[in-house]
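INFO batch 0412 | record 1 of 1 | parsing
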Amino acid sequence: MFNNIIKTLATWFGLGLVPLAPGTFGTIGGSLFYYFFRHHSIEWMIQFSLIFAAFSIFVAHMAEKVYKEKDCQKIVIDEVAGVLFCYACLPYSHFNLVMGFILFRIFDVAKLPPARQAQDNLKGGWGVVCDDLVAGIQAGLILYFLPNMISYASSSLAWLEKMIS
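INFO prediction complete | emitting C-alpha cells
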C-alpha cells in the first residue's frame, strides 16, 4: 500500500507514466498549481513551494527505492517542485504561466550549472529534486527580471534614437 502511494505521488497521479516526455507532463501538473493558486499572495506561494520541495525530496527518495532506479523517468514530482520554484516570486499572468513553463523546460533539459552538479553529486531524493529546483530558480529569475530588461532596452533605444536625430 505504501509503495502504491509513493508511486502515485512520484508520478504525480500518473503523469509520469506518459510514455513520451513525462517530464513535460509533470511540468504541466506543476503549472496547474500556479494557475489554481493565482489568487494567493507571493509570500504564500513561496512558503507552499518550499514545503512542497521538502515533500518532493522525501517522495523522490522513497520512489527511487521502490523503482530500484536512480532518477527514474517516471518520477515527475521533481518537475512539479521545480516549476513551482519558477513561479513562486511571480505575480500571476498568462504570460508568466506560459513563459515559465517554456523556460523551466529549457533549463530543466539543458541542466546548466549548478543544476548538473546538483543532479550528479547529490544522492537520493536530493539529487532527483535539486537540479529541478535550480532550473526553476534560473527560469524564475529570467521571468522576474525580463520586464525590467525590456523596459531598459526600450528606453535606451529611445534615448539613442533622440541622440542620432
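INFO post-check: DSSP finds seven helices and no strands in the chain.
INFO record closed
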